[in-house]
Recover the amino acids of this structure.
C-alpha cells in the first residue's frame, strides 16, 4: 500500500481506523444509529401523542354539534362521531408513519434537531388541516339540520299578503 | 307555515312537467299545485299564513320546499346570487312556450286530446 503513498493509522480515542485516502469509520456505526434513533423515536412519540389528544378533543366536542345536527338522536350522533374519529386516526397515523423515513445523514445534534422539528412541524400542520376539516364537516351537518326545522324562515321575504296580517302576540 | 299553494300556467308544457316532477320529490312541507287565474301572468305561491310570493320569489319558494334543494334556495336568496337567480327564472319564464315546443313537453290538455283521438277497437266479445 505504501507504494501508492497510502498509510493506515489507528486512533485510540476516536476508535477509528483511518486510511489517509478515505476515512474508514468502522466503529462509528453505533453513533450513527444513536442519532437516527434519537430522531425517529421522539418524532413518533410526539406525533402519536398530539394526534391522540386532537382526536379526543374532536370526539368530545364534536358530539354536541352532531347531536344538534341529528335532532337529538344520541345513538346516531355517537355512531357518526365514532366513524369520523376512526377516519381521522387512519389518515393521521398513516401520514405519520409514511412520513417517518428520511434520507438525511444524521451525524450531529444540530441535524437531529432540525430534522426533528421539520418532521414534527409537518405532522402538526397536517393535524391542523384535518382538525379544521372536521370542524367544517360538523358545522355543515348542523347547518343542514337547522335549515330543515319546521320553523325555518323562507329564503326571501314575501311579495305581498293575501289578507291583513294578524300580529302574533 | 305548514303548506304551500303554487298557482302555475296549465297551458305551458314546461310548467306541467315541472309540477309532475315536484310530485315525486321529497317535500319538507306539502306543496299543492293549482291552475292559475286568467289575468295573472306570474307564478304565484301562497302560504297558509297568508304570505304571497310572485315571479322569481315564488320559484325560490318552490325549491325551498324541497329537501334536496333547500340549501340551494338559501344560497340563491342571498344578495350575491339573487340577481342571477332572478335572471335565470325570468329567462325560463318568458321563453316557456318555446322551451315546451323544443323539448316536446305536453300539457295535461294536450295529452288528454291525444288520447281522445286514439282509435279504440270494439271488443269482439
Amino acid at each position: 500500500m505504501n507504494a501508492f503513498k497510502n498509510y493506515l493509522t489507528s486512533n485510540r480515542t476516536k476508535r477509528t481506523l483511518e486510511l489517509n485516502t478515505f476515512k474508514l469509520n468502522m466503529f462509528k456505526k453505533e453513533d450513527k444509529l444513536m442519532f437516527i434513533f434519537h430522531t425517529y423515536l421522539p418524532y413518533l412519540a410526539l406525533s402519536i401523542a398530539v394526534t391522540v389528544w386532537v382526536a379526543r378533543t374532536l370526539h368530545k366536542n364534536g358530539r354536541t354539534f352532531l347531536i344538534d345536527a341529528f335532532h337529538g338522536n344520541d345513538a346516531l350522533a355517537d355512531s357518526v362521531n365514532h366513524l369520523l374519529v376512526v377516519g381521522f386516526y387512519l389518515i393521521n397515523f398513516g401520514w405519520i408513519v409514511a412520513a417517518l423515513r428520511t434520507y438525511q445523514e444524521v451525524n450531529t445534534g444540530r441535524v437531529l434537531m432540525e430534522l426533528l422539528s421539520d418532521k414534527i412541524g409537518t405532522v402538526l400542520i397536517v393535524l391542523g388541516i384535518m382538525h379544521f376539516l372536521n370542524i367544517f364537516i360538523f358545522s355543515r351537518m348542523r347547518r343542514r339540520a337547522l335549515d330543515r326545522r319546521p320553523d325555518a324562515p323562507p329564503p326571501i321575504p314575501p311579495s305581498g299578503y293575501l289578507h291583513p296580517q294578524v300580529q302574533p302576540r | 307555515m305548514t303548506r304551500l299553494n303554487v298557482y302555475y300556467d296549465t297551458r305551458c308544457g314546461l310548467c306541467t312537467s315541472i309540477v309532475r316532477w315536484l310530485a315525486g320529490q321529497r317535500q319538507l312541507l306539502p306543496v299543492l299545485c293549482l291552475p292559475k287565474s286568467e289575468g295573472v301572468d306570474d307564478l304565484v305561491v301562497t302560504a297558509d299564513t297568508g304570505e304571497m310570493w310572485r315571479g322569481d320569489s315564488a320559484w325560490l319558494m318552490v325549491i325551498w320546499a324541497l329537501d334536496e334543494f333547500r340549501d340551494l334556495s338559501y344560497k340563491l336568496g342571498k344578495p350575491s346570487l339573487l340577481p342571477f337567480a332572478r335572471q335565470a327564472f325570468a329567462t325560463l319564464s318568458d321563453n316557456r312556450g318555446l322551451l315546451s315546443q323544443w323539448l316536446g313537453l305536453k300539457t295535461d290538455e294536450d295529452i288528454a286530446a291525444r288520447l281522445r283521438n286514439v282509435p279504440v277497437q270494439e271488443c269482439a266479445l
User: Anything to note?
Assistant: Chain A touches chain B at residues 143-144, 147-148, 150, 152, 154-156, 158-163, 165 (CB under 8 Å). Residues 28-147 of chain A form one domain. Helices of chain A lie at 29-69, 74-98, 109-147.
